[in-house]
Amino acid sequence: MRRTTPAPPVRIVHLGLGAFCRSHTAWYTHHAADSSDWGIAAYAGRTRSRDLTARLARQNGLYSIVERGPVRDRVEVIGSIVRAHSGGDVPRLVADLSAAATAIITLTITETGYRLRADDTPDWDDPSVVADAEILRGVARGTVTTSDARPVTALGRLLLGLDARRRAGSGPVAVVSCDNLSDNGGRLRRGLSALAAGCLPETAAWIAEHAAFVSSSVDRITPRLAADEAAALAAEYADEAVVVTEPFRDWILCGRFPAGRPAWEAAQARFVADIEPWEARKLWLLNGAHTLLACLGLVRGHDTVARAVADPVCRDAVNRLWNEAERHLPDGLDVPAYRRALLERFENPRIEHPLAQIAIDTLTKLRLRVVPVAERELAAGREAAGCATAIAAWVVAARRGALPQDASSESVRRAAGAPDPVLSMLTLLSAELAKRRRPFQSRIAAAQARIDLADP
Ligand SMILES: NC(=O)c1ccc[n+]([C@@H]2O[C@H](COP(=O)([O-])OP(=O)(O)OC[C@H]3O[C@@H](n4cnc5c(N)ncnc54)[C@H](O)[C@@H]3O)[C@@H](O)[C@H]2O)c1
Ligand SMILES: O=P(O)(O)OC[C@@H](O)[C@@H](O)[C@H](O)[C@H](O)CO
């Protein structure tokens, strides 16, 4: 694929090049009113994404988005990604992060990619975090040069880049998290600042003054393609990096851009003063239902969201979870219309969204998507039966070995095999819920028995 107009200059650095940033961040930037001024240098996170960077690099960053509606496809070529790199190319990443032209850093590194604890401090039990901190301390002491440093975590690499930016005097920058986490910008600021304080104190002070952290609620269902579908699309569109997504899209942002930003509002991005209600609506309703459907759907023999949501048992469980979540959302969000639209989006028969893909990192996802609703319902003196069903579905899926392999598989497997699996798994999920809520545990156990009995 060849460009017919000059590539825009790189002013955005993206961490976590995958399906989603191509369907969302890059789409919005391509459709910004001043798109010719804003190019993206995108870096993958894990080694297994190396193949995608190579394919995109061969196509000068160009790729097609197939917007897959219930009846037909709409295809367009996106040109905002100018360069694609492996995340292991740390010197290149550091050069981009420290360039004066770079105004924005965006992230889609997955929820677990932040490697933070519940209190937003770095997870010091993670050997990669410990190893990266040691490298960064070496940089601060001068025993490791920036060009020799090879941190492996996303935050370690970001911090190394911001340290170089401080030293280069390249000015302020906005850091925008686009991951499915509540208060994602705040969490990133706290996590990165804590890591910096322990390793690069001068850069911690620089971050406090020169880095603006933007929170954003991102919404566009974009499944990772199966290999055979990717191959068929590559042949059809003569494009090795096609991404398939739904027609719906939404991006709500909250925060400052001290070095400027694309005019994303031309593509209907919204800038708000308080993002929390919007984040909660999206995370609890869309993502909460996705995680419930993933666990319950897999247990009931389904493979995709569309097939699971067509099952009355799954659909009823989704509606009960939504009734509980809705009680804790403020007025003015038009929740009934959002719920109706969500069901239509889930039902889209032409989007093959594998439940097994959504079920990756279910432990982290339940903490973000269901536990906050359960806590609020229980604090209000209600039963949180819908949340109990979602957690019970996870317990059953784990006990039957229906969940995919992920970073917490081993601890989940141990808890699922314990003498009291509900208590052990609830303890893993939320020590608070497990400690204080005996009746809630009984409700999960009852829901677990019902799911087991209804085995189709
Ligand atoms: N796909 C969607 O529908 C969607 C919608 C909204 C938000 N998101 C957010 O975007 C994230 C990525 O989704 P995707 O569809 O692009 O996934 P993907 O698997 O296609 O790509 C994920 C990217 O993150 C990198 N990554 C993965 N684990 C990492 C880690 N531990 N540390 C650093 N980098 C890591 C990968 O190398 C890859 O570059 C999601 O986890 C979610 O938070 C996705
Ligand atoms: O992308 P993840 O793994 O955080 O979550 C899986 C899905 O719930 C998610 O990707 C949704 O499709 C998306 O958040 C829709 O905007």
From TrEMBL:
One of its GO terms (molecular function) is mannitol-1-phosphate 5-dehydrogenase activity. Keywords: Oxidoreductase. InterPro entries: 6-PGluconate_DH-like_C_sf, 6PGD_dom2, Mannitol_DH, Mannitol_DH/Oxidoreductase, Mannitol_DH_C, Mannitol_DH_N, NAD(P)-bd_dom_sf. Residues 274-395 form the Mannitol dehydrogenase C-terminal domain. It catalyses: D-mannitol 1-phosphate + NAD(+) = beta-D-fructose 6-phosphate + NADH + H(+). SUPFAM superfamilies: 6-phosphogluconate dehydrogenase C-terminal domain-like, NAD(P)-binding Rossmann-fold domains. Residues 11-265 form the Mannitol dehydrogenase N-terminal domain. This is Oxidoreductase. The lineage of its organism: Bacteria, Bacillati, Actinomycetota, Actinomycetes, Frankiales.
